[in-house]
Amino acid sequence: PVPKGYEPTNGCVAADADHVYLSARTGSIYVLDLDGKLQREVKVGYQPFGISTAGKEKLLVMGPTQLKRIEADIGQVVTMTMPPPSEGLQIPMLSLQNGELLMSDHVESRIARVNPENGAILGKIGGKGTWPGQFGAIGGMAEDQEGRIYVADYGNRVIQRFTPNGKIDAVLWAKQLSSEQGETER
After folding, report:
1. What is the pTM assigned to this prediction?
2. Where do the H-state alpha helices sit in the chain?
3. How far apart are CA 76 and CA 33, in angstroms?
């Protein structure tokens, strides 16, 4: 079950070992236990662009030129300034184990590594294109236990894996559907 009146947004769900977090169009973050029971509602004052867990009971909420860190257990909110919108930074976003934040840059089809404490861009991964290490349209990101970064690129129909320092490591190609080959499905 979701909280009464909940209206989802893009990049609206995150989870850690103890909680599920839902962001709403109304500018609220709902903190649920793993059974779906509402623990608290935290108001952030804007419709979140994306959310990502940042350690045990910590959540990062991205909005226009700012990032809010929420301490889920007590509902405390800390606001940090982010790079200006001209950078094109948007969802999806991902908080890494090392404390950095990855944010997609849809204008340049790349990923920016951001210091969430001061908003400084630490580095960039990728760019427009169809070759390994380049992106057509970034759809999602994840990190595994070894710190490797996975990027779903729905524009090129691939998932790319990068080393923790941002070097291309592997490309997983989606199977072409028979309807895309001009054949009819039977």
Report:
1. 0.70
2. none
3. 17
